[in-house]
Design brief:
The protein is α+β, with helices and mostly antiparallel strands and 231 residues long. 59% of the residues lie in helices and 14% in strands. The protein has ten helices and four strands, in the order ααααααααααββββ. The protein has a four-stranded antiparallel beta sheet with strand order 1-2-3-4, covered by helices on one side. The longest helix is centred in the middle third of the chain and has 23 residues. The N terminus is likely disordered.
Length: 231
C-alpha cells in the first residue's frame, strides 16, 4: 500500500469519528457527504474544544467537505451560518497550533480532499461557468491593479501561499513602470478549462508587436477560495 493511499484511509477514518452512529441509506455520494456535513454541524455548533491532532483533522476535513459547492448549496441558511462560525473557530485554533502540527494537518487534508472532490465533481453549467469566469477575472484584474499601484503585498494576497514567495521575488525585480506595464500587457485573459478545483486561462499579449500566449492557472486553496497558482 502506498503512503498516499494509507494517508487517505487514515484521514477518511478520522473524518468519520463521531459520526459512526449514522448509517448511509443512499449510495449517492452527494447525499452521503451532505449528510456527513449536516451531522458534523449539528455535533459542533458551539466552540470546538478539543485541539488534539485527530480532532483538529476531523474538524478541518469535515468543514472542507461542507465547503464543496455541491454540498454547500444543499445547506440551509442556518447551517451555512453555523459553518461560518465553525470556520472562524477553526482558524483561531489553527493559529495557536505548533507549526509542525499545522503542516501535518494540511498535508493530510491535501491527501484526502482531491479524492472526495473527484467523487463529487460534475461539469459546470453554462451559467455556473459564466459566474466563475466573472469571479476569476475580477481577481486577476484586482491583482493587476494592485501591482500597477505598486502595492506588492496586496497583489500577492491573490496568490496561493505556495506561490507567493516566488512572485514576490519576481515583482521586486521590476521597477514601478514595469509593474504598471504588466497590468496593461497581461489584462486580456480567456477561460480555457475548469476541472474540479483548477481553472486554466489563456493570456494573450502583444509584446514588441508580436502576439504572445501564456497560461494562467487558478486553484482553490484550503479555505475554498480561488487563488492564482501560476502564470
Amino acid at each position: 500500500m502506498t503512503k498516499t493511499k494509507r494517508a487517505v484511509q487514515i484521514v477518511v477514518f478520522i473524518l468519520l469519528i463521531g459520526l459512526q452512529s449514522f448509517s448511509y441509506s443512499s449510495p449517492d455520494e452527494v447525499e452521503k457527504y451532505t449528510q456527513q456535513c449536516k451531522n458534523f454541524l449539528n455535533l459542533h455548533s458551539g466552540e470546538l474544544k478539543d485541539e488534539s491532532f485527530e480532532k483538529m483533522l476531523g474538524y478541518i476535513g469535515n468543514a472542507q467537505i461542507c465547503k464543496v459547492e455541491r454540498i454547500y448549496n444543499k445547506l440551509t441558511e442556518a447551517e451555512k451560518n453555523r459553518l461560518k462560525d465553525v470556520l472562524i473557530n477553526i482558524e483561531e485554533k489553527q493559529k495557536r497550533l505548533p507549526k509542525e502540527k499545522r503542516e501535518r494537518i494540511n498535508e493530510s487534508i491535501a491527501a484526502i480532499m482531491p479524492t472526495i472532490e473527484n467523487e463529487l465533481w460534475e461539469e459546470l453549467t453554462k451559467d455556473e461557468l459564466k459566474e466563475l469566469d466573472i469571479l476569476l477575472k475580477g481577481k486577476w484584474n484586482g491583482m493587476l491593479t494592485a501591482l500597477g499601484q505598486n502595492d506588492t503585498e496586496k497583489a500577492l494576497s491573490y496568490f496561493h501561499h505556495t506561490a507567493s514567495e516566488r512572485y514576490r521575488k519576481i515583482f521586486k525585480t521590476l521597477n514601478p513602470d514595469g509593474r504598471k506595464r504588466i497590468g496593461k500587457d497581461l489584462a486580456n485573459i480567456h477561460l480555457v478549462e475548469v476541472v474540479m478545483n483548477t481553472a486554466i486561462y489563456e493570456i494573450t499579449s502583444e509584446l514588441k508587436d508580436e502576439k504572445t500566449s501564456f497560461q494562467l492557472a487558478f486553484v482553490k486553496d484550503l479555505h475554498g477560495e480561488w487563488v492564482i497558482k501560476s502564470f
